[in-house]
Design brief:
4-stranded mixed beta sheet
């Protein structure tokens, strides 16, 4: 089986895809891409869309965590990423879709807003990546990439302020998925990896960490993603945008 995973360093859905491949015991080649530039590379690789994670699997091209999970289950059913039981599958599907459409965007917008105002931490998110250029050079010349990424992801003041205000409720929802057993079982499913990678990315922002640390969501994220590259020091986000912790 030949597998090549195209990723953007620091991307939370790419972390989820990597963890799913590893859960199946599938060896893969990782190709690190520069944000924005990645779109041209994926077009050249004949992927149908320009988003990551993007996986070549025995010549088949698959994009997005859910489609990747389905493809992996088809080729190697155990352990299953998408439950066969209809009721359990429905719960996992609900958690996955919410994380994919809401929690993932909250984390992504907050990160790009912070990097738009200070590019220096970019290098920490590229730890271990091989992008074809030195990380220091990528950071030094990265202003257009950061500006375009922030624009593409709608990382505006208004959106990020709203995202941060809604973060406590989002973490409450993650805790509820853990409490009812949708995620957090002995065999992680698609929603486990999707949710944990989102929470783990949020935890790399020192301003946000106190809102999550000590919660079941934090323990779950750390258990699945012990090491997540990147750190944005405290003070990157306006203090009056942050909800009270505790």
């Amino acid at each position: 089986m030949k597998a090549t995973l195209f990723v953007i360093p620091g991307s939370h859905p790419c972390v989820a895809a990597r963890l799913m491949l590893e859960s199946k015991g599938i060896e893969y080649k990782r190709v690190d891409l520069i944000p924005v530039v990645s779109k041209a590379v994926l077009k050249a690789q004949r992927f149908p869309a320009v988003t990551v994670p993007a996986l070549k699997l025995d010549g088949r091209r698959v994009q997005g965590t859910r489609d990747i999970a389905a493809a992996l289950d088809e080729l190697r059913p155990e352990p299953p990423l998408i439950p066969a039981d209809p009721d359990r599958r429905a719960k996992v599907d609900e958690a996955d879709r919410w994380a994919d459409t809401e929690l993932q965007e909250q984390a992504r917008r907050t990160l790009w807003w912070a990097l738009k105002h200070d590019r220096a931490p970019m290098a920490t998110y590229a730890e271990g990546a091989r992008m074809g250029v030195p990380v220091s050079l990528a950071v030094k010349t990265g202003q257009p990439v950061v500006a375009l990424s922030a624009r593409f992801n709608k990382a505006t003041d208004e959106n990020v302020q709203r995202d941060l205000a809604g973060l406590p409720a989002a973490i409450d929802r993650v805790d509820s998925f853990l409490a009812d057993g949708t995620i957090g079982g002995s065999e992680p499913n698609l929603a486990d990896y999707q949710v944990a990678s989102c929470v783990r990315l949020l935890m790399t922002l020192d301003d946000v960490l106190p809102l999550i640390d000590g919660r079941p969501a934090a323990a779950h994220a750390r258990s699945l993603v012990p090491d997540y590259p990147g750190r944005i020091p405290a003070g990157a986000l306006p203090a009056d945008w942050l909800p009270a912790s505790g």
